[in-house]
Write a structure and sequence with these properties.
Blueprint lengths: L7 E2 L3 E9 L6 E10 L5 E12 L4 E9 L7 E10 L11 E12 L5 E5 L6 E2 L3 E10 L5 E10 L4 E3 L3 E5 L4 E9 L7 E11 L8 E13 L5 E7 L3 E3 L3 E10 L5 E11 L2 E4 L3 E5 L4 E9 L7 E13 L5 E15 L4
Amino acid sequence: IADTIPPQKSGSAFSVNAQIINLGLSDKNFVFKEFVEDPSGKVVVDIPEQLVTAKKQQTLKLRYDIQLPENSPAGSYTLKCSVSGKPSIFSSMIARISETSRAFEVMEKAVSVELKIMPGIESKKGGERVNTSAMLRNTGETPAAFFVKFALRTPSITNPFEEKELTLNREESRSVPFEAFIPQSAQTGEYVLVTEVYIDKEGSPKRRLVARDEQSFMVREKIVKVDIVALEVPDKVKAGSGMVIKAEVRNTGEIGHKFIASAEIIGGSMTKGLNRQEAEILPDNSATLIFKDTLDERSPSGKYEISLSLWDDMDANGKLHGKYAEKSRAFNVLEKET
């Protein structure tokens, strides 16, 4: 074999030059045979035998094209050549006159992928979904199956998602969608979408990471907000008579919330607290609160005021905390008729 065979790749084609020298004293017919063995000794390329005639002391130059099979495993291969005497009518060798071999390496075709997560994941809140995608492009030398693994890293834990498999031809691109639900009770802070691309399935000894990308976004607290839309109070109330106070309260925030409503009558050198009420309202919903009271018969005439406040919480001592909204309305108190 005249050539040193450089390293090859699975599925590649190459040529080999060989020489046959007739060292005998007469012209001779020879059978030339060539084949390739893989690392296990299996014949993977079998070139048909060729009958050649060489005159005495003549050197014959032969050239053969060899095509390795696709998906040939990496390792050390052997090209073997033999020269035998004239075959019978059944093309079997009579006598092997000479043989030689040449070792060469076969390497795996380079497998690579370009990965890019679509940018611009907006900030999220609990109860919302993350919808994005990862773009993959096969930049390797061969079609390949890729396994895409998504994971969502929160401030406290990492949640893995099911792998997605896809096969890409050379230079082929494809988008892999991703969707995740942010729980209502999600912890606020920075979240990171991690995308990894592997060769071979999880658990395979040949599994290898070929690409990785990250995209971060913020999960913020939902806004809690309630407003007093309307406060209805009688214009005039006689001392000693009853009165009804009606309030319309609306949740203008992003999350359902329970709040405490407190109302006070202010005037005549006194402040009188009415019974507190609790209400829970979903976002974009309203509730009507009704307070009833009877003014003291001795209430002096004059201008009074109803003050309504919405609070977040009340402690064990009855003290209110976290005022959301406040609204007041004036009314007049008339002396009781005698």
